[in-house]
Amino acid sequence: MELKGRNVVVTGASQGIGERLAHEFAKAGAHVLVAARSEDRLAAIARNHNGSFLTVDLTDPDQVDGFVDRCVERLGHIDVWVNNAGVDTSAAFTDLDHATLRNVVRLNVEATMILTRDVARHMLSRGSGHIVQMSSVSAVVPFPGLTAYAGTKAAITHFSESLRLELSRTPIGITVVSPGPTATEMWDRIESASVDFTEPVLRRFRRLAFLPTLHPDKVARATVRAVERNRPHVRLPRRYGPFHLLAHLPRQLVTMTMAGVRLDVPVPAEDSAHPGHTL
Ligand SMILES: NC(=O)c1ccc[n+]([C@@H]2O[C@H](COP(=O)([O-])OP(=O)(O)OC[C@H]3O[C@@H](n4cnc5c(N)ncnc54)[C@H](OP(=O)(O)O)[C@@H]3O)[C@@H](O)[C@H]2O)c1
After folding, report:
1. Among 45-54, 136-145, 270-279, which is the least confidently predicted range?
2. For the domain 7-257, what is the CATH code?
3. What is the Cα–Cα distance from 66 to 240, expressed in whole angstroms?
């Protein structure tokens, strides 16, 4: 998709990878709406990129419901939606309290699925659009100490790959981004919180050269390029490539098995001007 003049929404864009994504999309000529909880940061980022912002707490179901509509009201329509907001859990799984577990599932999984559902309907009714899911290498590689987080990222990758099959004959593109450790506050938190429990795992992974740290700009640039070229995956760093390929094999087999199967994807009633898409 040519990004010049397109409307792009990035969640979790007040810092880290999301802030760099906003920067790269704006550099490509898009109008970017940045969303998160920190109003001051969002306002500064929106100002720097001639964009706009909305505050939202995506762990609150009442704020998740209707958030796509708020964005459409602000922008007119949405061309690209980036589900980037996410939170980590770095501790022994049995030490996590219920509130922390609910929080990570609500933000990383529940909000992502509901926003994807709502924005996919909007895009189907318009006849175009692209959705980016910020997953992680921990979706395919088990990571003791990040157990709940890794589970949520596996859920998002697998959900998105099933959705890709459902939508494959429609004009909606999906890119699943799966970075390794990336130099942001989240990774700092994981490294500093891990002294007691996760440190032995990190030490072993480091010894095996398994934890090279990416710059968030690299993840952001590769993601924007993938949207421009309608690429299904961003997998960084390259040394993790074999893990992704092995984990993805059953999905590729199912994709082949689906050849010739046609699914009718209903076009939402809001806009009956566009004909239905079939799979
Ligand atoms: N860093 C890594 O090593 C790494 C590796 C692979 C994948 N990822 C994924 O990349 C994405 C971004 O991570 P990051 O490293 O940039 O993390 P980060 O620096 O901690 O930024 C997280 C972003 O999410 C927003 N956010 C957190 N809770 C929110 C909530 N309840 N409602 C709305 N927004 C919320 C934060 O903004 P506010 O606090 O202002 O709300 C912030 O903008 C995440 O999905 C993460 O899982 C990160």
Report:
1. 270-279
2. 3.40.50.720
3. 37
Averaged confidence pLDDT in the chain: 93
Q: Ligand 1, residue 183: give the atom nearest the CA.
A: 1
Q: Pocket of ligand 1, candidates 14, 21, 114, 149: which has the most ligand atoms within 8 Å of its Cβ, to mutate?
A: 14
Average of pLDDT values for 221-225? 98
Distance 248 CA to ligand 1 centre (A): 25
Q: For residue 88, how far is its CA from the centre of ligand 1 (angstroms)?
A: 8
Residues with CB under 6 A from ligand 1: 12-18, 36-38, 56-59, 84-87, 107, 134, 136, 179, 181-182, 184-187
In this structure, the chain runs to a length of 279
Run of H or E including 108 = none
pTM of the model: 0.95
Q: Is the pLDDT of residue 241 over 80?
A: yes
* Whole-number Cα distances in Å, 52 to 6, 21, 26, 34, 49: 13, 14, 11, 6, 8
Of ligand 1's listed atoms, the one at least distance from the Cα of 13 is: 43
Active site residue 240: no
Domain boundaries of the chain, sorted by first residue: 7-257
